[in-house]
Write a structure and sequence with these properties.
552 residues, alpha/beta, Rossmann fold, Domain 2, N(10)-formyltetrahydrofolate synthetase, Formyltetrahydrofolate synthetase, domain 3, 3 domains, 4-stranded mixed sheet, 34% helix, 20% strand, globular
Length: 552
């Protein structure tokens, strides 16, 4: 049975009942139909006895599949089956991957959040609000230039791009303002995907409306002819942008197939942004539940590192346990097996591919947080292969637990949940990867050598020049957000496994002062993806009764 068929056959509880599980009454939520709601802020209550945070991450993604969201959902359901007050925190899916190649972000099989179609499509309109807010700012920039350009904005140095929540390579590099004097001032421009907008990062890192406005105000949109930064505050556009985000700022409440409360809010990509759901969502769950289970995008080299070094200082809470998701199929692919041969037992490939999981384990252990490995089971996995990975993990002082959540839901993650609960009780002394007063070069070097396993960093001439400029304006001590391929520890997607003796190439930096970090662009990373030869969109249809078909 397909994921969408399982989801559509589910019997959902009214969202008011799901809210009551964590002590939310009807006055504290805003309903979007019967099965979705937004949680009103600020929330002044505590309905828990403890405050444990569990971060779910994974090995580098492969076409074989890892199932990080599926395990996150199944783990949450297992906690609920063990009579624990638990909430799940996930990111919102983007229409780009949904209609492209990657797919949705609602889990799979019997470990899903529902209503699956709504969440993967328009949901509560957050993505559209972000798109409108971003493009309103773009319109105000071009209008300011057209109306006399009092701020002396250099149209050659505008770094703020328009956005669209769909993969569209044709919009990566465009020219606007063509058609004569009445149509505006011609200049080069481009589109990013909505989830790559700085406003998405701002939304996900803001602590309240006041903080949201402060972050929006300090966003750098470009530079004037004297090469000085121009901000949203300079354009007097802070209020307008904030108003368009007022509802999007509120966390979204839904449920799993087993009626576990789930907050799905914010959706920055981890390969081009910081890859974590909103601080407000996580704080809300921590306020309401004893156990909050959240995830970070892509592999631990991207999402988890950014969660631990960018989100954690803002959140004010470090994880009590880190769960790394892996599959036998993905390990064999990292060991050199083709996708067509993955169903055949191959212990040597498992052993070779384990190097990828091993590096992620050691990376997460650097933070002094307990680590548990979740082996997301596929029907083709053999007992010998599963046992071998458990043995290998044991040599790295880590327990690997088999999770069969796609087929069994929460029941398939009970052992995993019990192990995670035990790990959460261990004494920990969180150790960040870098210090806040380290320079950008020092922070990047520590990420490359300690997380990626590289030998060093090469800065392109443009990046070197920017480092000098950033130091002059006081941006040189900000956290760094690496924009890198998700498929490899290196910046070359073809180098799978655990490559060594490579250097990361930084071609340029993008200041994101609203988000509070500097983005380092590596390799050929793109902020507007393209569609594959056969996009998922060609399989999607709408039945005459209004049922969505072919989504997954």
């Amino acid at each position: 049975m397909k994921d969408i068929e399982i989801a559509q056959q589910a019997t959902m509880k009214p969202i008011t009942e799901v809210a009551q599980f964590v002590g939310l009454n009807n006055d504290e939520i805003e309903q979007y139909g019967a099965y979705k709601a937004k949680i009103k802020l600020p929330l002044h209550k505590t309905n828990k006895t403890k405050e444990k945070l569990i971060l779910v991450t994974a090995i580098n993604p492969t076409p074989a599949g890892e199932g990080k969201s599926t395990v996150t959902v199944g783990l949450g359901d297992a906690f609920k089956q063990l009579d624990q007050k638990v909430m799940i925190c996930l990111r919102e899916p983007s229409l780009g991957p949904v209609m492209g190649m990657k797919g949705g972000a609602t889990g799979g099989g019997f470990a899903q959040v529902v209503p699956m179609e709504d969440i993967n499509l328009h949901f509560t309109g957050d993505m559209h609000a972000l798109t409108a807010a971003n493009n309103t700012l773009s319109a105000l920039i071009d209008n300011h230039i057209y109306q006399g350009n009092q701020l002396q904005i250099d149209q050659r140095r505008i770094i703020w791009k328009r956005v669209l929540d769909i993969n569209d390579r044709a919009l990566r590099h465009i020219v606007v303002g063509l058609g004569g004097a009445l149509q505006g001032v011609p200049r080069e421009d481009g589109f990013d995907i909505t989830v790559a907008s700085e406003l998405m990062a701002v939304l996900c890192l803001a602590s309240d409306i006041e903080d949201l406005k402060k972050r929006i105000a300090r966003i750098v949109i470009g530079y004037n002819f004297a090469k000085e930064p121009i901000t949203v505050a300079d354009l007097n556009a802070t209020g307008a942008v904030a108003v368009l985000l007022k509802d999007a700022l509120k966390p979204n409440l839904v449920q799993t197939l087993e009626h576990t409360p789930a907050i799905i809010h914010g959706g920055p990509f981890a390969n081009i942004a910081h890859g974590c759901n909103s601080v407000l969502a996580t704080k809300t769950a921590l306020q309401l539940a004893d156990y909050t289970i959240t995830e970070a995008g892509f592999g631990a080299d991207l999402g988890a590192e950014k969660f631990l070094d960018i989100k954690t200082p803002v959140l004010g809470k470090t994880p009590d346990t880190i769960v790394i998701v892996a599959t036998i199929r993905a390990l064999k692919m990292n060991g050199g097996v083709s996708k067509e041969q993955l169903d055949q037992e191959d212990l040597q490939a498992v052993i070779k591919g384990y190097a990828n999981l091993q590096r992620h384990i050691k990376n997460m252990q650097q933070y002094n947080v307990p680590v548990v490995v979740a082996l997301n089971r596929f029907s083709s996995d053999t007992s010998a292969e599963l046992t071998k990975v458990q043995e290998l993990c044991k040599t790295d002082n880590t327990t690997a637990i088999i999770a069969d959540v796609w087929a069994k839901g929460g029941q398939g993650a009970l052992e995993l949940a019990k192990n995670v609960m035990q790990a959460c009780e261990k004494t920990q002394d969180f150790k960040p990867l870098y210090q806040s007063d380290d320079s950008l070069e020092e922070k990047i070097t520590k990420i490359v050598t300690n997380i990626y396993g590289g030998s060093g960093v090469e800065f392109a001439p443009k990046a070197q020049k920017q480092l000098v400029e950033f130091k002059k304006v006081g941006w040189d001590k900000l956290p760094v957000c690496m924009a890198k391929t998700q498929y490899s520890f290196s910046d070359d997607a073809k180098k799978i496994g655990a490559p060594t003796d490579f250097k990361i190439h930084i071609r340029e930096f993008v200041p994101k002062l609203g988000a509070g970090f500097i983005v380092a662009l590596t390799g050929n990373i793109l902020t507007m993806p393209g569609l594959p030869k056969k996009p998922a969109a060609v399989s999607v249809d709408l039945a005459t009764d209004g049922t969505v078909q072919g989504l997954y």
